[in-house]
Design a protein that fits this description.
Arc Repressor Mutant, subunit A, elongated, mainly alpha, three-stranded antiparallel beta sheet
């Protein structure tokens, strides 16, 4: 493959990523607005769903915002019954937050909203195109998995979230 082919591939991959991110995130933000949840609150719900219970300080580090800001975000999630707050008997000073069944339902619905456009797209693809796209995307997914975990440029502390 010569450099011109690589440039074309790079351009179409960037266009694909730009368009899929735009439509996915637009749907995700609209979902948040429908539930009157901020992007940060949606992120908190996803992290609690994936990582289990967390302390305010752990969420604060993850979002890189103050403990008081996280407490305000969590308070609304607790009031909506999407998150529960509890303490452990051995250290009652630490307040843990966990996702509730209602919160898990919100996470599931937000994921569905984020990718809901795929059904419309799929209906507009012919069987011949479907074969080509499936083959190409299978290769791309494999190559992306080969890249391994994302490495951040800054040192990031491991948190329990």
């Amino acid at each position: 493959m010569d450099s011109e082919d690589n440039t074309d591939l790079r351009k179409i991959m960037q266009e694909f990523i730009d368009n899929t991110m735009h439509i996915s995130m637009s749907n995700y933000f609209q979902f948040g607005r429908n539930y009157n949840l901020s992007f940060s609150q949606l992120i908190i719900l996803h992290r609690l769903h994936k990582g289990g219970p967390c302390l305010v300080s752990e969420i604060s580090k993850m979002l890189d915002i103050s403990n008081s800001a996280v407490s305000q975000l969590l308070e609304k999630l607790v009031q909506l019954n999407f998150v529960s707050r509890y303490e452990k008997p051995e250290d009652r000073r630490k307040k843990y937050h966990a996702i509730t069944e209602q919160g898990m339902d919100v996470v599931k619905k937000s994921r569905e909203a984020r990718v809901s456009w795929i059904d419309s797209l799929e209906k507009n693809i012919t069987p011949d195109e479907s074969e080509i796209v499936t083959e190409a995307l299978t290769i791309m997914v494999s190559k992306i998995k080969e890249l391994g975990p994302v490495h951040h440029h800054h040192k990031q502390e491991k948190d329990n979230c």
